[in-house]
Structure to design on (301 residues):
């Protein structure tokens, strides 16, 4: 009998052959940013009409037998049955709250199907793969910054990412957390992760904290572009040295390679770019400054 996991891996990649292009050596090349007096909009304006109506929130009570970062969560998300509970409000792409069940185990999760993605003029598609890739990068580095995230081919709306739902304190975000000294190491770790992943959309609201003071990074789809795309709100550590733990993890990554999971999810050029970013950050030895003054996402939260 064929291994369903093996079939799922094969189904992740049904794309046209990728043609590699030269990689930009500098993470912060100023010539990548051109002046534009018009308001920046990542989405093709003529494809989607704005809806000013108030979106309804989903009413549900959090209940789970497995915590977001537990090892068992991978099995639950990867093999459990999926029930859609509702469309997440205020999401730019089709994002769904779902319930995942396998035997006696259950947990809510966030499902992002490929078919729900809006096309971007400056970013390749398949953002769901980048959600999974960011988790795999965090896991391989030992950072633990991203809730368990898996790729699902067999799902209600087709292939996409499935991420463990975090029961966070949703009134908190990066700008309420950055002055808490006990969280500094976690925030530095997340900053290091974003540098390597080339995060193009690290808003303040994408930094969650749970009741155990664990910081989680969500909404990681805009990442791993082969060109310099870093846009983040985490610039408070500019000039400070990398934590030893982060530096050691980066060095280990360079020595061992990206691993099979990341290789399956990224194009050859994206793999090469990821390793070059890691080399550059490690060589500089400190968190960078924003040379352009424009390396921020919008809105900030």
């Amino acid at each position: 009998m064929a291994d369903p996991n093996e079939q799922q891996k094969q189904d992740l990649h049904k794309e046209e052959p990728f043609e590699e292009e030269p990689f930009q050596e500098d993470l912060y090349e100023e010539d990548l940013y051109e002046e534009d007096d018009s308001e920046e909009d990542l989405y093709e304006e003529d494809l989607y009409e704005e809806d000013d109506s108030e979106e309804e929130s989903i009413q549900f009570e959090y209940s789970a037998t497995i915590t977001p970062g537990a090892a068992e969560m991978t099995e639950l998300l990867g093999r459990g049955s999926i029930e859609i509970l509702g469309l997440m409000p205020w999401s730019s792409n089709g994002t769904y709250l779902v319930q995942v069940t396998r035997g006696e185990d259950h947990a809510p999760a966030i499902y992002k199907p490929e078919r729900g993605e809006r096309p971007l003029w400056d970013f390749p598609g398949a953002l769901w793969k980048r959600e999974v890739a960011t988790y795999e990068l965090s896991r391989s580095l030992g950072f633990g910054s991203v809730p368990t995230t898996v790729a699902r081919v067999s799902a209600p709306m087709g292939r996409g990412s499935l991420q463990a739902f975090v029961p966070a304190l949703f009134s908190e975000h990066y700008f309420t957390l950055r002055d808490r000294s006990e969280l500094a190491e976690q925030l530095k770790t997340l900053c290091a992760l974003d540098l390597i992943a080339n995060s193009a959309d690290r808003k303040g609201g994408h930094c969650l904290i749970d009741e155990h003071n664990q910081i989680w990074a969500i909404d990681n789809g805009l990442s791993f572009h082969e060109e310099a795309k870093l846009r983040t709100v985490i610039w408070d550590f500019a000039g400070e040295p990398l934590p030893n733990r982060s530096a050691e993890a980066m060095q280990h990554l360079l020595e061992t390679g990206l691993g099979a999971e990341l290789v399956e999810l990224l194009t050859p050029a994206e793999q090469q770019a990821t390793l070059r970013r890691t080399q550059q950050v490690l060589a500089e030895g400190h968190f960078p400054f924003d040379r352009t003054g424009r390396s921020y996402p919008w809105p900030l939260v």
Q: What stands out?
A: The chain has one domain: 57-284. Strands lie at 81-87, 96-102, 105-113, 149-152, 160-164, 207-209, 215-217.
